[in-house]
Design goal:
The protein is α/β, with parallel strands linked by helices and 461 residues long. The protein has two domains: 21-353, Alkaline Phosphatase, subunit A, CATH 3.40.720.10; 366-438, 2-Layer Sandwich (Arylsulfatase, C-terminal domain), CATH 3.30.1120.10. It has ten helices and 20 strands. The strands form four sheets. Strands 1, 2, 3, 5, 6, 7, 8, 9, 10, 11, 12 and 13 form a twelve-stranded mixed sheet that branches. A four-stranded antiparallel sheet has the order 14-15-16-17, with helices on one face. A two-stranded antiparallel ribbon has the order 4-20. Helix 4 runs parallel beside helix 5 (235-257).
């Protein structure tokens, strides 16, 4: 497979032209899948022919970041275009990394999600998959701009067991629990079927399909359907990855079958990197580190973008962009109005995705937070790591030293000083630890919580 490597995604650019109608947008997000887990990003262990083909027919971003090494904060940024601390979704009500079942906290209803922007622009909107931004009714996808929801409201490992008095893992259709506990083996298959059926039903109007997959997920033994179980060279983890590849292919095939190929932007990525397991399962290679922290392996993701006639094919792009950029990019593609009464941290990256020769990163600095703590700053090729007390402790050139093998802190005092200034700006704006930022917004809270459970009549009680 041949790829054209261009620092600014320049070759093969196509001119921007008015659309007859706004494009359909399909955003597929895997759960806890690493940078090196698919073939077009270097895996020789997993068979991912459909994603490899998608990359050959589109663009592969190599410096694409999510805003957290864990699920809830990362997803909050996709929905709001903001750093998790901006919307106070960087930490759970219990001080944990992610929300747990029956939490009183969730994404604030006053936040204007990307789904709400597109809905107001006359898009049909659906969320099919794992939500994890609050399971109380006020926080569910159907209250956050999505016409339709089908999926589990939090992680696949949050199941009823000793010491965890949670409800059986609920599978929901809109706001009704239709299965509990959910059959996790068939989630990828059923999400795919639901997504295709929904696209078919909405083919005559612009649509936004957000498909946050549940796999590979957070368990030590990921799930896959019978067709894929035991078929990979990497145990249950590999089985789930290869089924995700199948799923992406089914979505792309459906888009083509509906005659919507050139009208549909499809993006495939992950919410954070593969976590450390013993023995190892996922791979973030050649990046350093594992999921659940602020390493490159945790926050730098595979990201494949395909839109025939608009996104150049066979391109590897080295421009830094982030999951926060989906917000402004999708809004502008849809002709939606971006709110001007609040800070949005992401940018419109249409020029990058369309391969314009002069396209550069819009980020002067990008911040790595672990819960409430600022742990690192990237500017240009350089990443500055910060100690627990905020002092510079490591500097790496992520372009020329992708695996971060050489600490060049002592060699570039000017770079260290500049990035340290950016860190101070982040602390003032977004906060740090117990220090509130000047421009944070509240999360949502409810006084009385209820569990998402099947109705007694459906349970046979």
């Amino acid at each position: 497979m041949g790829f054209l490597i261009v620092a600014a995604c320049a070759r093969g650019a196509t001119a921007e032209a008015p659309e007859e109608r706004p494009p359909n947008i399909v955003l597929i997000v895997a759960d806890n899948l690493g940078y090196g887990d698919v073939g077009c990003y270097g895996s020789t262990l997993h068979r991912t022919p459909r994603l490899d083909r998608m990359a050959a027919e589109g663009m592969r971003l190599r410096h694409f970041y999510v805003t957290s090494g864990v699920c809830t904060p990362s997803r909050a940024s996709i929905m709001t275009g903001c750093y998790p601390r901006r919307v106070n979704m960087h930490i759970s009500d219990l001080g944990h990394h992610v929300l747990q079942p029956v939490s009183p906290k969730g994404l604030h209803p006053d936040e204007i999600t990307v789904a709400e922007l597109l809905k107001h622009a006359d898009y049909a909107t659906a969320c099919i998959g794992k939500w994890h931004l609050g399971d109380q009714p006020e926080f569910l996808p159907t209250r956050q701009g999505f016409d339709f929801y089908y999926g589990i409201p939090y992680s696949d490992d949050m199941t009823q067991r000793e010491g965890k008095p949670w409800p059986p893992l609920p599978l929901m259709r809109n706001e009704e629990v239709v299965e509990a506990p959910a059959d996790r083996n068939t989630l990828t298959q059923r999400y795919t079927e639901e997504a295709i059926a929904w696209m078919e039903a909405n083919r005559e109007r612009p649509f936004f399909l957000f498909m946050p997959q549940a796999m590979p997920g957070s368990t030590r033994e990921p799930f896959a359907s019978e067709e894929f179980r035991g078929k990979s060279a990497n145990g249950a983890y590999g089985d789930s990855v290869e089924e995700l590849d199948w799923s992406a292919g089914e979505i792309l095939d459906a888009v083509a079958r509906l005659g919507l190929d050139e009208q549909t932007l499809v993006i495939w990525t992950s919410d954070n990197g593969a976590p450390r397991r013993n023995p190892p399962q996922g791979s973030n290679s050649p990046l350093k580190g594992w999921g659940y922290d602020t390493s490159e392996g945790a926050m730098r993701m595979p990201c494949i973008v395909r839109w025939p006639g608009h996104v150049p094919s066979g391109v590897r792009c080295d421009v830094l962009c982030t999951s926060m950029d989906f917000y402004a990019t999708f809004a502008n593609l849809a002709g939606a109005e971006i709110p001007d009464d609040r800070i949005i941290d992401g940018y419109d990256i249409r020029r990058i995705l369309k391969g314009h020769p002069a396209a550069e990163t819009p980020y002067e600095a990008f911040y790595y937070y672990d819960r409430g703590e600022l742990k690192a700053v990237r500017s240009g090729p350089f990443k500055l790591y910060l100690s627990d007390d905020g002092e510079p402790e490591g500097l790496y050139d992520l372009v020329n030293d992708i695996s971060e093998e050489e600490n060049i802190l002592a060699d570039h005092p000017d770079v260290v000083a500049r990035l340290d200034e950016h860190a101070a700006e982040a602390r003032a704006d977004l906060g740090n630890g117990d220090q509130e930022g000047a421009n944070q917004r509240p999360a949502g809270w409810v006084e009385e919580v209820t569990a998402r459970e099947m109705a007694a009549s459906d349970r046979g009680d």
